[in-house]
C-alpha cells in the first residue's frame, strides 16, 4: 500500500483572507462560539445540509453502464487549483476531443478535505471544487469512497482536529461506525446526483488482520455491503464496485504465501490477496463492476523478465478475476509499471520509455478483459519537471500544457471505449518479440519495446519506429 502516495495536504483554510490582529481575534471568537458541546471540536465551515444538491449537476445518461472507459484519478494537486489561465487550459484540453474522460476523486485525502468533521456536520468545500472541475471539463465523474473522518476511526471530532498523517488516513472505520460511513456515502450520492459510479474504499486500507497475518476480508465485506445497500437506496441506477484490492505478486521463486496456480514469468500472485477477493466475491451484497489495482512489478520492485513482459501480469490477473466474477466488467483503479524510489518518485526512465511501457500495460489490461482504468496522475503543485504527469503543474500561468502521457491516455480512451470489439492483426514473425499490438476495426496501436529504432510490419504495412515509439494507425 501507499505506492501512489497518501498526502492530502493541509486544509485550504477559508479564514486566510482575514488579516491583522483584529481579524485573528475575530476568528478566535467565531471558533469558540462554534465549538460543539463537550469540547468536541470546532464546527467552523461546516453545515448540516451535506446532502443538499451542489451546483448544477450534469445530465447523466438515461441508462447507467457499469463501465466508464479509460481516464485518470485526481491527486493532491490537480487542475482545479492554481493559476486561472492554467486551470482553464486543462479544462480546454480535456474537452478538446469531446471524449468525456472519466475522472476519479476520493472523498477525503488526495485533494479533498474532511467531509464530515463531526457527526452530522459536513464540509465539502474541496470536494465541490473537484466535482465542479469534472463537470466543467465534460468528464464522467467517479467517486472513491475513502477515506473516513477521524471520529469514525477512534480519533477526535471537530473541523480543527483532523489528523492528516498517513497512519490516520489509512485507518479504516471502526465496525461500530460502518453504518455511519455508509450514511456518509449516501450523503455524497445525494449531493452529487450526476455521479453514477462509486468505488468502495481504497486498497483495503486499515483492513489487515495482524493476529492471522492476512487481510480482514470479513470486515471489509461488511462495510462494502452496507455502503452498497445505502447507495442503491439513494438511486437504483448508481453503479457500485469493489473491492479495490492491491494485486500483489512475488518473485516466482518464492513459495511462502505465493499462489501455486496464478503465476507466470512475471511472478506469483500473493495467495492472501486471492483469498480476500474470493471471500468478498462470495459474500458481497452485489456489484455492478469489479475494481482492483496493482503493479506489473513484484513486491521487491522487480520487472520480470523485463519491464514490457512484466505487464503480462495484468492479462493473467484480469482473466482470473473475470472468471471468478462471472464476467463482471473489470476496472483497474490504479496501475503501475515503473518502480518508485524511496520518495515514491518515478524518475528513472525517459518519458518516451515511460509512455511506451504504460501503453504496453494498458494493452495487457484490455487483453485481460478490462474495460475501464484510471491513470494515477502524479501532478506537482509548481514547477515544470513532472515525470509521468498528464499536464504541467497549474501553479503558474504557463502551466496546464499537455504532456505525452495525456496523449496516450486520451487517445486510448477514444480509440478503445467500453464495448470495443478487438481484432487480431498480422505481425511479421521477426517483429513479434519487438512490438506490442492492440487493434479494433478502426485503430491499431503499436508499441516498440526496444530502446532502438526498428522497421516493423504490422497489419500488412511496414513502417519505421524510433526507440520506444508508440504508433497509432487509422484502419478506416
Poorly predicted regions are: 1-38
Number of helices: 10
Assembly form of the protein? single chain
In terms of DSSP E residues, the strand content is 15-25%
Strand order of the largest sheet: 1-2-3-4-7-11-12-13
The pLDDT mean sits at 91
Give the distance, in angstroms, between the N- and C-terminal Cα atoms.
43 Å
Largest sheet: 8 strands, parallel, barrel
The tally of beta strands, per DSSP, is 18
Shape label: globular
Structural class: alpha/beta
Order of helices and strands: HEHEHEHHEEEHEEEEHEHEHEHEEEEE
What share of residues is helical? 25-40%
Supply Rg: 23 Å
Protein described:
With 476 residues, the chain is α/β, with parallel strands linked by helices. The chain has ten helices and 18 strands. An eight-stranded parallel beta barrel has the order 1-2-3-4-7-11-12-13, surrounded by six helices. Strand 12, helix 9 and strand 13 (370-376) form a beta-alpha-beta unit. The longest helix is centred in the middle third of the chain and has 18 residues, at 217-234.
Concise account of the structure shown:
The protein is α/β, with parallel strands linked by helices. The chain has 10 helices and 18 strands.
Question: Which descriptors would you attach to this protein?
Answer:
8-stranded parallel β-barrel; 3-stranded antiparallel beta sheet; alpha/beta; 18 strands; disordered N terminus; globular; 10 helices; 476 residues
Write the layout of secondary structure elements.
Layout: H1 20-33, E1 70-73, H2 84-95, E2 102-106, H3 125-136, E3 140-145, H4 166-169, H5 178-191, E4 197-200, E5 208-209, E6 214-215, H6 217-234, E7 239-246, E8 249-250, E9 258-264, E10 267-270, H7 271-283, E11 289-295, H8 312-325, E12 330-336, H9 351-367, E13 370-376, H10 404-415, E14 435-439, E15 443-448, E16 454-458, E17 461-465, E18 470-474
Parallel strand pairs: 1-2, 1-13, 2-3, 3-4, 4-7, 7-11, 11-12, 12-13
Antiparallel strand pairs: 5-6, 8-10, 9-10, 14-15, 15-18, 16-17
Amino acid at each position: 500500500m501507499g505506492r501512489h502516495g497518501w498526502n492530502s495536504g493541509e486544509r485550504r483554510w477559508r479564514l486566510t483572507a482575514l488579516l491583522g490582529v483584529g481579524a485573528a481575534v475575530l476568528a478566535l471568537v467565531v471558533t469558540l462560539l462554534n465549538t460543539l458541546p463537550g469540547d468536541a471540536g470546532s464546527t467552523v465551515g461546516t453545515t448540516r445540509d451535506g446532502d443538499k444538491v451542489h451546483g448544477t449537476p450534469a445530465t447523466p445518461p438515461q441508462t447507467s453502464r457499469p463501465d466508464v472507459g479509460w481516464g485518470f484519478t485526481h491527486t493532491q494537486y490537480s487542475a482545479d487549483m492554481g493559476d486561472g489561465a492554467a486551470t482553464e487550459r486543462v479544462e480546454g484540453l480535456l474537452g478538446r476531443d469531446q471524449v468525456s474522460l472519466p475522472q476519479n476523486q476520493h472523498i477525503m485525502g488526495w485533494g479533498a478535505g474532511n467531509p464530515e468533521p463531526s457527526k452530522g456536520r459536513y464540509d465539502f468545500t474541496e470536494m465541490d471544487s473537484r466535482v465542479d472541475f469534472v463537470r466543467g471539463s465534460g468528464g464522467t465523474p467517479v467517486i472513491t469512497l475513502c477515506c473516513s473522518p477521524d471520529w469514525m476511526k477512534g480519533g477526535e471530532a471537530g473541523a480543527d482536529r483532523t489528523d492528516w498523517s498517513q497512519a490516520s488516513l489509512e485507518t479504516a472505520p471502526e465496525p461500530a461506525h460502518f453504518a455511519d460511513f455508509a450514511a456518509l456515502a449516501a450523503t455524497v450520492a445525494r449531493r452529487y446526483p450526476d455521479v453514477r459510479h462509486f468505488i468502495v474504499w481504497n486498497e483495503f486500507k486499515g483492513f489487515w488482520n495482524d493476529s492471522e497475518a492476512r487481510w480482514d476480508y470479513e470486515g471489509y465485506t461488511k462495510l462494502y455491503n452496507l455502503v452498497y445497500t445505502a447507495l442503491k437506496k439513494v438511486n437504483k441506477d448508481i453503479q457500485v464496485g469493489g473491492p479495490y484490492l492491491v494485486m500483489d505478486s512475488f518473485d516466482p521463486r518464492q513459495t511462502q504465501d505465493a499462489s501455486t496456480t496464478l503465476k507466470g514469468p512475471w511472478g506469483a500472485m500473493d495467495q492472501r490477496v486471492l483469498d480476500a477477493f474470493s471471500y468478498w466475491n462470495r459474500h458481497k451484497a452485489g456489484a455492478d463492476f469489479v475494481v482492483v489495482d496493482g503493479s506489473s512489478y513484484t513486491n521487491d520492485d522487480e520487472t520480470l523478465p523485463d519491464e514490457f513482459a512484466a505487464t503480462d501480469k495484468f492479462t493473467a490477473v484480469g482473466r482470473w478475476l473475470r472468471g471468478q466474477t462471472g464476467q463482471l466488467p473489470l476496472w483497474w483503479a490504479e496501475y503501475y509499471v515503473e518502480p518508485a524510489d524511496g520518495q515514491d518518485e518515478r524518475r528513472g526512465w525517459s518519458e518516451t520509455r515511460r509512455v511506451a511501457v504504460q501503453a504496453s500495460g494498458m494493452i495487457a489490461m484490455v487483453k485481460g478483459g478490462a474495460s475501464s482504468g484510471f491513470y494515477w496522475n502524479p501532478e506537482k503543485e509548481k514547477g515544470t519537471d513532472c515525470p509521468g504527469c498528464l499536464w504541467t503543474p497549474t501553479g503558474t500561468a504557463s502551466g496546464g500544457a499537455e504532456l505525452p502521457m495525456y496523449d496516450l491516455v486520451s487517445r486510448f480512451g477514444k480509440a478503445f471505449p467500453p464495448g470495443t470489439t478487438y481484432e487480431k492483426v498480422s505481425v511479421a514473425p521477426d517483429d513479434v518479440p519487438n512490438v506490442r499490438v492492440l487493434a479494433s476495426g478502426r485503430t491499431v496501436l503499436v508499441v516498440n519495446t526496444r530502446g532502438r529504432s526498428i522497421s516493423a510490419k504490422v497489419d500488412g504495412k511496414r513502417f519505421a519506429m524510433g526507440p520506444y515509439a508508440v504508433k497509432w494507425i487509422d484502419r478506416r
